Amino acid sequence: MRTKPVLTDDDVKAMAAAAEAFAKGHQWNVTIAIVDDGAHLLHLHRLEGAGASTVDMAIGKARTAALGRRETKAYEDTIKQGRTAFLSAPMNAMLEGGVPILVGAEMVGAVGVSGVKSDQDAQIARAGIAALGIENV
């Protein structure tokens, strides 16, 4: 049997605080979702001024990144390159802004953000993950 790292409550709180601080520092009103490796919701915060639709999108981006074990931008790029059949994949948020959390080769969760431009959503997610002090590649 192997040992696998998992997110702790303190990890989730640190990521949430860092992501929120980054978003607020840019005056970006977003929703931030953090899920575990099974795509189960661990944290959700809709910042003041973020649109109602950002809640479902942030959760969807986090879940898609966790279940697919890759950034949601990869799915968006695949579709943009003409593989429109991929739209039938059982994922519900294939836009940039969902980033998996990797500890070495182990995927332990994901952060999904929605509310600003997709590349900005991803910046916020990465800022949250950076609070863990790991190299997330």
TrEMBL record:
PANTHER family: PROTEIN GLCG, SLR1406 PROTEIN. It comes from Caballeronia concitans. It holds the Pfam family HbpS-like. InterPro entries: GlcG_carb_metab_protein, PduO/GlcC-like, PduO/GlcC-like_sf. This is GlcG protein.
